[in-house]
Automatic annotation (TrEMBL), chain A:
Organism: Peribacillus simplex
Protein family: Belongs to the complex I subunit 2 family.
Membrane topology field: Multi-pass membrane protein
Protein name: NADH-quinone oxidoreductase subunit N
Pfam families for the chain: Proton_antipo_M
Stretches assigned to the NADH:quinone oxidoreductase/Mrp antiporter transmembrane domain: 131-433
Reaction(s) catalysed by this chain's protein: a quinone + NADH + 5 H(+)(in) = a quinol + NAD(+) + 4 H(+)(out)
UniProtKB/TrEMBL annotation, chain B:
Subcellular location: Cell membrane; Membrane
TM stretches of this protein: 12-35, 66-87, 93-116
Catalytic activity as recorded in UniProt: a quinone + NADH + 5 H(+)(in) = a quinol + NAD(+) + 4 H(+)(out)
Gene coding for it: nuoA
Function of the molecule: NDH-1 shuttles electrons from NADH, via FMN and iron-sulfur (Fe-S) centers, to quinones in the respiratory chain. The immediate electron acceptor for the enzyme in this species is believed to be a menaquinone. Couples the redox reaction to proton translocation (for every two electrons transferred, four hydrogen ions are translocated across the cytoplasmic membrane), and thus conserves the redox energy in a proton gradient.
Any one Gene Ontology molecular-function term assigned to this protein's record: NADH dehydrogenase (ubiquinone) activity
Membrane topology according to the record: Multi-pass membrane protein
InterPro entries: NAD(P)H_OxRDtase_bac/plastid, NADH_UbQ/plastoQ_OxRdtase_su3, NDAH_ubi_oxred_su3_sf
Matches recorded under Pfam families: Oxidored_q4
Listed name of the protein: NADH-quinone oxidoreductase subunit A
One annotated Gene Ontology cellular component of this protein: plasma membrane
Subunit: NDH-1 is composed of 14 different subunits. Subunits NuoA, H, J, K, L, M, N constitute the membrane sector of the complex.
Organism, as annotated: Peribacillus simplex
Sequence similarity: Belongs to the complex I subunit 3 family.
EC numbers on record: 7.1.1.-
Automatic annotation (TrEMBL), chain C:
Organism: Peribacillus simplex
Topology of this chain in the membrane: Multi-pass membrane protein
Lineage start: Bacteria, Bacillati, Bacillota, Bacilli, Bacillales
One GO process term, biological-process aspect: electron transport coupled proton transport
Matching PANTHER family: NADH-UBIQUINONE OXIDOREDUCTASE CHAIN 4
Stretches assigned to coiled coil: none
Protein name, entry field: NADH dehydrogenase subunit M
InterPro entries reported in the protein's UniProt record: NADH_Q_OxRdtase_chainM/4, NADH_UbQ_OxRdtase, ND/Mrp_TM
Keyword Signal: no
UniProtKB/TrEMBL annotation, chain D:
Name of the molecule in the record: NADH-quinone oxidoreductase subunit K
A GO term from the CC aspect: NADH dehydrogenase complex
Provenance organism: Peribacillus frigoritolerans
UniProt keywords, alphabetically: Cell membrane, Membrane, NAD, Oxidoreductase, Quinone, Translocase, Transmembrane, Transmembrane helix, Transport
GO biological process, alphabetically ordered: ATP synthesis coupled electron transport
TM region positions: 6-25, 32-52, 64-88
EC number: 7.1.1.-
Main location: membrane
Reactions catalysed: a quinone + NADH + 5 H(+)(in) = a quinol + NAD(+) + 4 H(+)(out)
């Protein structure tokens, strides 16, 4: 690997990452050396600029052919492009959210740190989505995790925040260890950490013992990742962490971090297990044989998420459970593999919908809770009368989360259902659970709307919305409705740009 | 086979040293027991502190500095984990690796500057 | 111009929505006026379509089809696979329902004058509701149908929960949950069809399901067809509502604001009947046929059950609510008769009940506005204080119990005509219901108009006056004209029913 | 050294991993929990190195991977302890059971 | 014979032979420690213009240290009531065992070396780090404020200086491309690394003094502040083992310095008729002498100066040295 090899690499493929990295470093230096009285809030705009630049460079890379550099550890394939686009988009929204974050206490001294820790987390997620081997994947995952541990504990003097981050560290640590242990077995049975190579080895595997280990590895990795996406029964941390974390961080966890979890699942499962052989005769049906476990986890997640959300009084906790449920819906798509035709665009679209609606909801929560100092459901009361536009925006998000037609959430769910029904035999039980979960979710989602529209006004204080939050709300509302009414904009985009994601496995 | 045996024997030696390192104190202390007197009085077993028993447990909260240095150590010690293999293989890696490592170290230095600026390295 | 007429019709309430949205909150009068004006464009457009029909223009020229959504990327198999187009269409059946919708909406908008608060939000939701209903009746594919269907659901949820009576929140919740379950079942059925066939176009689906040997994207077994048919039936039976699924509807009728109940009883419930005809009967005629007995059975059950319970209610709104259940039982009976008379009767019943219920609830609204109660024991002697009102009430009651010359008679007569042909036993049992209907209607109306009660002090100017005549008269005249000249409806329906009969094996 | 089969390393790693998991799930002291997590990570390291030497297709990658793992374990420990410290400052406890401010 | 032994399959016999040899080395080391201490005291005496030990064992006090050891051996052993007994007993072992273990890989001459393992340098660094644990354990187990603070200080100091110590050696590794100590010595046949890596040497030497907890970096056992640091509560032979490990480390560190920077047993040009062992001995003695010299010369520095010096000066310098070395090497390759 000499100078020439280095020059021969297409470094442009890593441009978005470099931009984010550079922004992070600039931000951290600025935060360090700028005088104390300087308002760190302005750094948000710098961070946003960085993200937008990265986004632009990514867009300019869209027409790039699939490249893999650094001996196939870093791949820029359509999968990576698609998910990075989403990650950057979500990140931009969350930065705007954070810009307007004004809690009763805290974040004053650490506001500057928030932005660059956030960007490092984003960087981790981006690296993950482009990773071509296990090491990059793992390092990206940990970059994301470690940054988010700190982000959760950002409010250093708030006990809840401390507790939340401690819980997150412990749970995250355990899950990391389990994932890693699984990965070590994967390495053991294939003798490589390159995903493409591993997939070839695993497809050709006929040794029963090795397959047994592979199964073990599958479970371990899956359990570890389930922690990350907060799938039941590994979801226990989510409500506590969401409650304790600053609101933008909670939004980040529920959107970006979750997305990253699905990125690993897809990367690993699609490139490794989908074509792994499932028996000693070399039939490539490993995932077919084992997706019952994913499916049951998905079902369980949906049930627990929705049912427990019913009795939550704290908004953030409620949305923690709601996001657990949504992870369940997405897992349905993974378990059914989108029926074989819809997997990646389903997951992508759903995640995009989720970015829009969930960040929107968190924007409203943040606005109301920082103004009233409480996170109880009752702070929503009378919002419909006090500020009807905000209430309308909130309604749009909630309807979308509930999967009501005309919103992105509906199209997303529709996609998932298509995948469950298209196969023969169809996954009717899973679909049944999902639909039942949706109905149950109506109860608590509409319970919020009842607060908003049917209850007397909670406090007369005028709600001041910072421009950043305004932007978030407007973007989210427009996006939620637009992609609900004309989802083809998104579908055409992914089909035109990314085709069928066929360059997923084949290297170079 | 020869190479392997050398390899194994060398580590056997290391193991021998480990055993010896543990055995010596054990034996010495055991022998010492035979030689030394044993005349316990209460005073002998008090903690050394102005002649009276300390009022409370000595294991009070440590200064937070110690932890911070501990954390710093962990981070920078791990940095060397990467520096060593890099240094060993540097001949084969060349300029590219140098730049890569520079990148890595600059980021870590940023961490050091951060700690410096945040007064972590101050001992008070 | 023709091509966009239907979309224009469906989205014409948007004009009103924009107008209302732009008004400041406080302008009560203007908002109410604009809200009403907002219902006029669809009304006129539907009249125009109607006139087109009567001037022998084929309704199919109004069909519109635009590319909309394509799921997945399966272009290499078939460019139309997994596409959902934006397609609206019109036939006789939907034309009638559209007319019903636009007329009742306009009248309900007038009746909404009694709404006491937040007119802006009310009218916005009201117009969205109308848009949803119009969409439901013109949608040519299942996904589009479902979208409009849910639109009505959500807007009605808010309308009930915000502007209803005391127990409104509970009512809106049970409305939401029941209908949510119904629509979930519907959605599952729709999506199974979509996933397995790759299309949601109703015509295409009908073709695929009725003809054998069409290659599907994934197989649909015979039992699955039964399941799907049943799913459609259950989904729409909840909406209708039929006996075991009815409890939500009672609450809604009792708690929702009268103007919304006008729409609810007048149009929303009818979506159930429309759906059963279009999807249950239309797409799965074979399966539907074999389920006919069950359908009639449930029809009879709810007919009798509703009538019995209506007999013992003390709240007039509840009497009406149970009578709606009962009348919807008649619809089911007619639909299960599987012959021309039965189906025609059922559709007639749907329309006629729509008109009658709208009028009754309009009167309830007027009554509540005056007296502040709808409890039968508290009312009474209205004939003295409100003679004109009582006259309308009486006429309406007569229509409801099926007095000849009113629309109710035609429909009930035809339903029983059909049913006696195909299921004489059940028809015979059903007849008991007719008697019960007469009893409870008369009991309630008599109690109100002639009952002894002095608590309501006679007051001047209590009676129906001014603009209030308009809705009442329009509705009553429609009821009578349908009753006198049934072909008004029979004509447009002819084609649809014939097609149905053909599919059902023309008995 | 050929006398020691691969499975021995794997069993050792598995045992360590299980001890770590047990500790992480049952211990009440957060420090011990963190140590248990480190134990689990190190068990994975043993696996990686063992596979890299005696695996089906031996390669150096396993050792490289373990280097990265070590780094990450260190970073995780650092972050974990830092958070624990700030928790301790506010709560005066490192007991996991006492972290119960948030209950639904 | 040793060569054959190394080539044979490892067995219990090998173990026995190695054990015997190791015991031999142990006695050598013990001898060194005994007379190292004496010589230190003598040198100090000389520098401070006094005589030093001169009563026992003739004019030079040759048996002074021996007597000291015997005294320690027959001293009563006390363990404070409040101490954590198991840890208290374990601590000296943890402190001593690694000190002895590091000797296993050090090459004294080309012929006299025990284990020649590929990662000798890393081995030394890794094992020597364990001693810190022993010291902290001792401080903790004694349950005494002085010892606890002493132990913590020792730990903080040792870990802080370990980093520059380790990093300063990266330059050498860069040049030799190996972690094997024999290779490193072989690479110095022409030029010693003290000339090629002067910066590294300075950093290394300062850090090594700090690692050894010697003046001016002897804060953990600063008599005037902390009574005796982490071993306040220790007496008799338990205490002796802390001392022993300290001096064994001194022995090892002096050896390592010789090996890494002074060319090990390599001779100065034209003087290669002198045996390697003597060369080694000379260089070793010189390092040892300098260590003692420093002890006598410098005053103890303050705790805050100590830490800041390590992190803010030594670490950046060490890092800079690494890149300078790499860059120069690259440039030399280019031209």
């Amino acid at each position: 690997m000499d100078w020439n090899t280095m020059l021969s690499y297409d470094w442009g493929a890593m441009m978005p990452e470099f931009i984010i990295l550079g922004t992070t470093m600039i931000l951290s230096i600025l935060d360090l050396f700028w005088p104390k009285h300087f308002n760190r809030r302005k750094l948000a705009w710098l961070a946003l600029t960085g993200i937008i630049l990265a986004c632009l460079s990514l867009i300019s890379l869209l027409s790039f052919e699939t490249v893999s550099i650094l001996s196939d550890t870093f791949r820029l394939d359509s999968f990576a492009k698609a998910f990075k686009l989403l990650l950057l988009f979500g990140a931009a929204l969350i930065i705007l959210l954070a810009e307007g974050y004004e809690p009763k206490e805290g974040l004053r001294e650490h506001r500057g740190e928030f932005y660059y820790l956030f960007l490092t987390a984003l960087l981790g997620a981006m690296v993950m989505s482009s990773s071509g081997d296990l090491i990059t994947l793992f390092v990206g995952l940990e970059l994301l995790s470690l940054s988010s541990y700190i982000l959760v504990g950002m409010r250093k003097h708030d006990r809840k925040s401390n507790e939340a981050s401690m819980k997150y560290v412990i749970n995250g640590g355990i899950s990391t260890a389990i994932t890693l242990f699984g990965m070590s077995y994967l390495y053991g049975v294939t003798g490589s950490v390159n995903l493409g190579e591993m997939s070839r080895t695993m497809a050709a595997m006929t040794d029963g013992q090795l397959q047994y280990i592979m199964g073990l590895a599958f479970f371990m990795v899956f359990v570890g990742v389930s922690f990350k996406i907060a799938a039941a029964p590994f979801h226990m941390w989510a409500p506590d962490v969401y409650e304790g974390a600053p609101t933008p961080v909670a939004a980040f966890l529920s959107v970006i971090s979750k997305m990253a979890g699905f990125v690993i699942i897809l990367r690993l499962f699609l490139s490794l297990f989908l074509t792994a052989s499932g028996d000693t005769f070399g039939a490539l049906d490993f995932l077919d044989k084992n997706n019952i476990y994913i499916a049951s986890l998905a079902g369980l997640t949906i049930i627990i998420g929705n049912v427990v959300a019913l009795r939550q009084q704290n908004l953030k906790r409620m949305f923690a459970y709601s996001s657990i449920a949504h992870a369940g819906y997405l897992l349905v798509a993974v378990a059914t593999l989108g029926g074989g035709y819809f997997l990646l665009d389903t997951v992508w679209f759903y995640l995009m919908a989720y970015v829009l609606m969930n960040i929107g909801v968190f924007a409203v929560i943040q606005l109301l809770s920082s103004q009233s100092g409480s996170e109880d459901i009752s702070i929503l009361a009378g919002l419909g009368r006090k500020s009807p536009y905000l209430a309308m925006a909130f309604t749009v998000f909630i309807l979308s989360l509930a999967g009501i037609p005309g919103t992105t959430g509906f199209i997303g769910k529709l996609n998932i259902f298509l995948g469950t029904f298209i196969t023969e035999p169809g996954h009717f039980v899973l679909a049944g659970i999902m639909i039942a979960g949706t109905i149950v979710s109506y109860v608590y989602y509409f319970g919020l709307l009842v607060q908003v529209f049917f209850r007397p006004i909670h406090s007369e204080k005028v709600i001041k919305i910072r421009p950043g939050l305004y932007a978030v709300l407007i973007i989210c509302v427009i996006g939620t409705i637009l992609f609900g009414v004309a989802p083809n904009i998104a579908f055409d985009f992914i089909h035109d740009q990314f085709g069928d994601f066929t360059d997923f496995i084949s290297s170079k | 086979m020869g190479q392997l045996h050398i390899y194994q024997n060398n580590y056997l030696i290391v193991f021998v040293f480990l055993c010896l390192g543990i055995l010596l104190p054990v034996i010495a202390l055991f022998l010492g027991r035979l030689l030394r007197p044993y005349k316990p009085t209460d005073m002998k077993y008090t903690t050394y502190e102005s002649g009276i028993d300390p009022f409370q447990d000595s294991r009070v909260q440590f200064n937070v500095r110690y932890y911070l240095f501990g954390l710093m150590f962990v981070i920078f010690d791990v940095e060397t984990v990467f520096l060593y293999p890099w240094a060993v293989a540097y001949d084969e890696l060349g300029l590219f690796a140098l730049i890569e490592m520079l990148f890595f170290v600059v980021i870590l230095m940023l961490g050091l500057i951060y700690a410096w600026k945040k007064k972590v390295l101050k001992w008070n | 111009m023709n091509v966009y007429l239907l979309s224009l019709l469906v989205f014409s309430p948007l004009l009103g929505i924009v107008m209302v949205a732009l008004m400041p909150k406080k302008e009560e009068r203007t908002i109410k006026q604009f809200g009403f004006f907002g219902t006029l464009p669809p009304l006129f457009l539907s009249f125009f379509l109607c006139s087109q029909y009567y001037s022998d223009v084929a309704l199919s020229i109004f069909d519109i089809k635009l590319n909309w959504i394509r799921f997945g990327n399966l272009e290499m198999y078939d460019p139309k696979l997994f596409t959902v187009d934006f397609e609206l269409g019109l036939d006789g059946l939907s034309l009638i329902f559209i007319l019903l919708t636009t007329i009742i909406s306009s009248l309900a908008a007038i009746a909404s004058i009694y709404i006491k608060k937040e007119w802006k939000g009310y009218y916005l939701l009201f117009l969205i509701l109308e848009m949803g209903m119009l969409g439901v009746f013109t949608a040519e594919n299942l996904i589009l149908f479902f979208i409009f269907f849910e639109m009505t659901l959500i807007s009605a949820f808010f309308l009930i929960g915000r502007w209803g009576f005391l127990e409104r929140e509970k009512a809106s919740y049970s409305f939401l949950i029941y209908n949510g379950i119904g629509s979930a079942v519907l959605l599952v059925a729709i999506l199974i069809l979509f996933a397995r066939t790759g299309t949601t176009n109703i015509a295409a689906l009908t073709q695929m399901m009725t003809m054998g040997g069409v290659s599907l994207f994934a197989p649909i077994s015979g039992s699955m067809k039964y399941g799907l048919c049943l799913a459609f039936l259950v989904a729409f039976a909840i909406k209708l509502p039929v006996f075991p699924f009815h409890s939500w509807m009672v609450r809604v009728h009792a708690e929702a604001p009268p103007s919304i109940v006008m729409i609810h009883a007048g149009v929303l419930l009818k979506i159930g009947a429309y759906g059963i005809i279009r999807f249950g009967m239309g797409i799965f005629p074979e399966q539907y046929k074999s389920l006919a007995f069950t359908i009639v059975l449930f029809g009879v059950l709810s007919f009798l059950y509703g009538a019995f319970l209506a007999l013992v209610q003390t709240d007039f709104k509840l009497v009406l609510a149970y009578s709606s259940i009962s009348h919807m039982g008649i619809v089911m009976m007619g639909l299960g008769a599987l012959n021309e008379a039965g189906i025609q009767g059922a559709i007639f019943q749907v329309i006629s009940h729509g008109l009658i219920a709208a009028l009754l609830f309009f009167l309830v609204g007027v009554l509540y506005e005056r007296t502040g109660t709808t409890m039968l024991p508290k009312l009474g002697g209205l004939a003295k204080s409100m003679p004109i009102f009582s006259g309308f009430m009486l006429a309406c009651g007569m229509a409801s119990l099926g007095l000849p010359g009113m629309s109710g008679f035609i429909s009930e007569f035809m339903v029983f005509l059909g049913l006696f042909k195909s299921q004489p036993m059940l028809a015979a049992i059903g007849v008991i219901g007719l008697v019960l209907t007469a009893v409870y209607v008369l009991r309630a109306v008599m109690l109100m108009t002639f009952g002894k009660n002095d608590s309501l002090i006679e007051k001047e100017k209590w009676d129906i006056r001014g603009w209030e005549f308009f809705p009442a008269l329009v509705l009553l005249s429609l009821i009578i004209s349908v009753g006198v000249y049934p072909n008004l409806l029979g004509g447009p329906l002819q084609g649809t029913i014939e097609a149905m009969m053909l599919a059902l094996g023309g008995r | 050294m050929t006398g020691v089969p691969l499975s021995a390393y794997l069993v050792l790693a598995l045992v360590l991993f299980c001890i770590g998991l047990y500790g992480a799930l049952t211990k009440r002291n957060a420090v011990i929990v963190l140590i248990s997590i480190e134990l689990m990570l190190n068990a994975a390291n043993i696996n990686l190195v063992a596979f890299s030497k005696f695996g089906v297709t031996p390669s150096i990658t396993g050792q490289v991977f373990s280097l990265f793992t070590i780094t990450i374990a260190a970073a995780e420990a650092a972050v974990g302890l830092a958070i624990l410290m700030s928790l301790y400052r506010n709560r005066k406890t490192v007991n996991v059971d006492e972290m119960e401010m948030m209950k639904n | 014979m040793i060569k054959d032994l190394l080539h044979s399959a490892p067995s219990l016999l090998n173990f026995g032979i190695f054990f015997g040899l190791a015991v031999l080395l142990l006695f050598v080391v013990l001898g060194f420690v005994t007379y190292g201490i004496l010589s230190e005291r003598k040198i100090m005496g000389f520098m401070q213009m006094r005589v030093g030990p001169n009563q026992i064992g003739g004019k030079w006090g040759l048996l002074q240290t021996v007597a000291d050891v015997l005294k320690l051996l027959i001293k009563e052993d006390t363990i404070p009531k409040k101490a954590d007994k198991p840890l208290y007993i374990l601590a000296p072992v943890i402190a001593f065992a690694p000190a002895f273990m590091v000797l296993a890989t050090l090459p004294f001459t080309d012929a006299f070396q025990f284990a020649d393992i590929g990662v000798g340098l890393l081995y030394y660094m890794a094992i020597s780090g364990i001693s810190t644990i022993g010291i902290v354990t001792a401080g903790w187990a004694s349950n005494n404020k002085y010892s606890l603070i002493g132990g913590m200080r020792a730990a903080a100091q040792m870990i802080s200086y370990e980093i520059p110590l380790v990093m300063s050696l990266v330059g050498i590794v860069l040049i030799t491309g190996s972690l094997n100590l024999n290779d490193i010595v072989a690479a110095q046949e022409k030029v010693w690394f003290i000339f090629l890596q002067p910066v590294a040497f300075i950093v290394f030497f300062i850090a090594s003094v700090a690692e050894l907890n010697r003046v001016p970096f002897d804060l953990p056992e600063a008599e005037s502040e902390l009574v005796a640091g982490y071993h306040v509560e220790y007496s008799g032979f338990r205490w002796a083992f802390f001392m022993l490990s300290e001096y064994v480390y001194m022995f090892a560190m002096a050896t390592l310095t010789t090996v890494l920077f002074l060319g090990g047993w390599n001779s100065i040009p034209f003087l290669d008729f002198i045996p390697a062992a003597i060369w080694f001995g000379l260089k070793f003695s010189a390092v040892f002498y300098i260590l003692v010299w420093i002890r006598v010369t410098f005053p103890r520095i303050r705790a805050d100066q100590l830490m800041e010096f390590g992190w803010k000066v030594l670490l950046p310098v060490a890092l800079a040295n690494i890149f300078l070395t790499a860059l120069i090497k690259e440039l030399l390759n280019l031209f």
